[in-house]
Write a structure and sequence with these properties.
This protein is an alpha/beta fold. Helix content is 40%, strand content 19%. The two termini are 25 Å apart.
């Protein structure tokens, strides 16, 4: 453990992320970006990489979701106490916001891997005695309030985070920005190195996760001038971050030597969004041990010793008898179904083909696509029973996303005498673990090309669950039709209108469910277990955070 007076001799990779999901009880994540950051840290510890992470403490979390009988979402604060999990450090740095000195302290959380390697994580906190009341709240909420609040947070993360690393004595050789929220650190580096642009670029790595223009943070120059230090070099900000508005993604792109998207497809989309930039791709991965259920952990420990440290060993899954894979799945499924019934009273059973869908409830992820043709869905259900488990939060300001949840609740009521459907409240890491290991099919229906990566299907594959997904994000790279899962709709290179794509997708979705998936599950169990085996052996062995981090080391960090 480092103290606030300690000096780190070994040069570090400083990993900046607005959100980091480490455990279910530390509410510093809202979804995929934060969970990926947590998996990145866990894999780095397993691989003994010299990483230090920087984030915000977000004491009041994102929000706890409450759903009423009609599926109407209400948001509640989801506070947590840092004292229970981490150590406060005495070191203090300051930044200027609205011409006030804002003090920043930090909490130190030491994540320790199963091999005993520790990764320090700094949770920045402005709830410091002497700060103005409005400044003490800057690090309270994750992604809350308005544009002004967001920019204040990004000043704390990027500028304050770099100053905290310096104050604690860390020697940093590379700064890895996980999304654009922390890109003001590049401005601080320019000041630190007397505007040596090439030196700053050499030190910076930028990973973009957002495939749509509207998803990138932008701030008016008037707001920047209002909030930031009066000595801020606005000329430099306009030069590197945009002449009309401060674009945080553009700032990171212009001042990073290495830039990557999170899948091959996302690299192509990003290159079109930001022409003229050389964008690489490193496909996301998940932390294998963390996302594997207890029954499968025991199975892998028995037959593939060392798999947790070296997930590539999962390619040898053929050495595990199919009946034992099936039994491990049955145990995981029982755990999920018992939880669903306890929480919702849905009355689900262990034998019925169970389909899972858990994503942020937003329009492009199309939570309700499966219900597009209820007559056909009912017909399919008569060929072989299905039951459906949904979960996911809508952003507090996403009215369309909230409406999607209400629509699913409407279908739950409409179909209650034919298909058992449950929507689990307050989706979090614990519920995700139960779902990705307990369903039989993992369904994913994003509107192309808006899925940058997606990782839930990778988690499902670690537990022998079979993917059934639109060809977007990571699934383009992992999919082998009829071997480890099934596609929905046109292939990536096919250029179709939105309506044409949807027509193809619905035909595929219903046809494959009726004529391939249901008959195989109920009548050809040996073929089904072979699919489960292939899901592990062709997906889990490769789409994991160990493989991902090895690529970051060789392509970006060295």
């Amino acid at each position: 453990m480092i103290s606030s007076e300690g000096v780190i001799g070994k040069e570090k990779i400083a990993y900046f992320s607005m959100e980091i999901g480490l455990t279910n009880d530390i509410h510093t994540y809202s979804g995929g970006l934060g969970v990926l950051a947590g998996d990145t840290i866990k894999a780095s510890a397993d691989l003994n990489l010299p990483l230090v992470a920087v984030t915000l403490v977000s004491k009041k979390g994102h929000f706890r979701q409450e759903l009423d009988a009609q599926g109407r979402q209400t948001e509640h604060p989801e506070g947590w106490d840092p004292f229970r999990y981490m150590m406060p450090l005495s070191t203090e740095v300051t930044v200027k916001i609205e011409n006030r000195d804002v003090k920043i302290k930090t909490w130190l959380y030491n994540y320790q891997s199963m091999i005993g390697v520790t990764i320090p994580i700094l949770f920045l906190d402005t709830d410091v005695e002497g700060n103005a009341p409005q400044d003490r709240e800057i690090t309270h909420h994750l992604y809350a309030r308005d544009e002004q609040y967001r920019l204040k947070q990004e000043i704390i993360l990027g500028i304050g985070g770099l100053r905290m690393l310096d104050a604690l004595g860390y020697k940093v050789r590379k700064y890895h920005m996980n999304e654009g929220h922390s890109s003001l650190l590049t401005l601080e580096l320019l000041h630190k190195y007397e505007m040596d642009v090439e030196k700053v670029r050499e030190m910076c790595i930028f990973t973009t996760h957002t495939p749509v223009e509207a998803g990138h943070d932008k701030f008016s120059h008037s707001l920047v001038e209002q909030l930031m230090d009066e000595n801020t070099d606005m000329e430099a900000l306009k030069r590197f971050g945009g002449s009309d508005r401060l674009n945080m993604t553009l700032l990171a792109l212009n001042l990073s030597r290495y830039v990557n998207g999170v899948t091959k497809r996302h690299r192509e989309v990003s290159a079109k969004l930001f022409p003229g930039y050389h964008i690489h791709s490193i496909t996301n991965g998940v932390h294998s041990y963390n996302w594997t259920s207890t029954p499968f952990r025991k199975l892998y420990d028995q037959y593939l010793p060392g798999w947790a440290k070296d997930p590539e060993l999962l390619v040898r899954i053929d050495g595990i008898p199919d009946e034992e894979i099936w039994q491990a799945h049955r145990e995981s499924k029982k755990n999920l179904i018992d939880y669903v019934n306890r929480k919702t009273g849905a009355g689900m059973d262990y034998e019925t083909l169970t389909i899972g869908f858990a994503r942020r409830a937003t329009e492009y992820k199309r939570t309700n696509l499966l219900f597009s043709d209820l007559a056909r869905l009912k017909k399919i259900n008569k060929k072989g029973k299905i039951q459906l488990v949904f979960a996911g939060k809508a952003h507090p300001k996403d009215m369309k996303g909230k409406k999607l949840i209400e629509e699913v609740f409407g279908y739950i009521n409409e179909l209650k005498n034919e298909i058992k459907i449950a929507y689990l409240e307050n989706y979090d890491m614990d519920i995700a673990s139960k779902m990705v290991s307990g369903v039989d099919i993992w369904l994913n229906t994003p509107q192309r090309p808006f899925e940058a990566s997606g990782t839930s299907g990778m988690k499902a594959a670690h537990n022998g669950v079979v993917n059934f997904s639109v060809l977007d994000g990571w699934w383009i790279e992992g999919w082998i039709e009829g071997v480890n899962g099934w596609s929905i709709g046109p292939e990536p290179e096919e250029i179709l209108s939105v309506e044409e794509s949807k027509t193809r997708e619905l035909d595929d979705l219903y046809s494959k469910l009726e004529y391939i998936i249901i008959p195989m599950y109920y009548k050809r169990k040996d073929e089904w277990t072979k699919m489960m085996n292939s899901s592990i052996g062709t997906i889990a062995y490769y789409f994991n955070s160990h493989s991902m981090m090895r690529r970051y080391v060789t392509e970006a960090y060295l």
